[in-house]
Amino acid sequence: MTADTVAAKPHKAKPRKTGNTGPAAWMRVHHPLAWYIFKRFLISLFLVFGVTLITFILTNLVPANPVNSILGEQEANDPEAVARMEAKLGLDKPLYEQYWLYLVRLVHGDLGESFLTKQPVTDDLKRVFPATLELGGFVFIFTILFGVLLGLYAALHHRHFADQLIRVLSLGGVSIPTFWLGAMCYYFLFYELGLFPGSGRLDSRISPPPTVTGMYTVDSIIAGDWATFGNAVWHLCLPALVLATANLSSLMRFVRSAVLESMNQDYVLAAKAKGLPSHKVVFGYILRGAAVPILNRMGLLFAGLITGSVLTESIFAWNGLGQYAFKATMALDLQGIMGVGIIIGVVYIFVNFIVDIITGFVDQRVRIQ
Fold first, then answer.
1. CA 93/CA 104 separation, integer angstroms
2. What phi, psi does 114 have (nearest 5°)?
3. So where does this one cross the membrane (predicted)?
4. What pTM does this model have?
5. What is the mean pLDDT of the chain?
6. 64 is in which domain, residue-wise?
7. Do 139 and 80 belong to one domain?
8. Within 13 Å, how many C-alpha atoms sit on residue 237's CB side?
9. Quick one: 187 and 292 in the same domain?
10. Are 338 and 55 in contact (CB under 8 A)?
11. Are residues 265 and 306 in the same domain?
12. pLDDT at res. 311
């Protein structure tokens, strides 16, 4: 064997040894998506614990005494009655012990008993949450459908008349206060013109469909009751219009900005230089590049619709989570307030977790960082 032959033999590099050789390092190298999802899941669990802690502390920092709201003015002046009620509610224990007992009950699905309704808070939330989910889901589908299309159209026709018109309309939609728009829609579209029903989820003459999901539109479809379905959709229109106005405008502006930023990237310019068809450039390069920020915005939009419709539900007497939160706050119902706080926090965390998973599938850069 000559020296040239020896030199020609490929040199087999030895694998470098790293400090981390455990299961976590192996998963991170060989299954980055699974590792990414696992990390996000652990972070979500930590955030849920943080939500319970913050909700409990902030609720107990309220200067008013909930016992006075429960007993009334006459019994609140009786020290013995106050002491009995505090012992019943556990308010006579130290704050850390109250929090520990609250966590133990929470793990078992017990959110306590509402001072206002005299029912378990869990049952109250099961009753009101489907109404908010129905309204928020209806608005979300409408907002995503038109917000993405109009934002994309405005970006592709940058500085044209259509772009300027969409920008002006979206700016107006974002600027209008929700409570003012709700009051105006209620007065003109219901009271003056009678075009839409003003309150409630169904007409008083119509009975709700058999409960399956708690959402009247879905339950009426399951039952095959199309008259009830039409009436439920008709009642949805006015509060959905109010909620969709600001959210649709905000999403249009965000999609337009994200698409414009993606259009200026080098890979988009290279695709145009290759002479690819315009639809391939738009859907294969521009939208794909703008997908991650748009997905994150959609997640925040959905969570906000589910948890932030207090004013709209109060104006239109929509018996959902927002109206329940408003009543619990006015009555100083601490158990109800904490239950709503937990639901809002969990919804945001869950939606963000789902968005993170979708983002990991869409963009490989996210899961390998």
1. 15
2. -70, 130
3. 41-62, 135-156, 168-189, 232-255, 298-318, 338-362
4. 0.81
5. 83
6. 31-107
7. no
8. 14
9. yes
10. yes
11. yes
12. 81
Closest Cα partner for 305 from 248, 253, 232, 220?
Answer: 248
Do residue 71 and residue 161 come from a single domain?
no
> For residue 365, what pLDDT is reported?
66
Whether residue 270 is found in the same domain as residue 358: yes
Domain boundary residue, one of 90, 107, 124? 107
Rounded Cα distance between 360 and 281, Å, is 22
The yes-or-no verdict on residue 76 having pLDDT over 70 is no
Rounded to whole angstroms, the Cα distance separating 248 from 146 reads: 7
Report pLDDT digits (tens) over 177-220: 888 888 898 889 888 888 888 888 998 888 999 999 999 999 99
CB-side neighbour CA atoms (13 Å) of 175: 6
Determine, yes or no, domain membership for 78: yes
pLDDT tens digits, one per residue of 211-258: 999 999 999 999 999 999 999 999 999 999 999 988 999 999 999 999
Q: Please tell me whether residues 66 and 189 are part of one structural domain.
A: no
Residue 156 token pair: 């592709």
Residue 115: Cβ within 10 Å count: 20
Q: What is the mean pLDDT of residues 307-336?
A: 85
Picking from 341, 263, 331, the residue whose alpha carbon sits closest to that of residue 115 is 331
Structural domains in the chain (count):
2
Same domain for 147 and 89: no
Nearest to 110 by CA among 125, 121, 98, 97: 121
* Nearest by Cα to 187 from 238, 152, 223, 225: 238
Q: Are 120 and 112 contacting, i.e. CB atoms less than 8 angstroms apart? A: yes
Q: Is residue 85 part of a domain?
A: yes
What's the pLDDT score for residue 50?
92
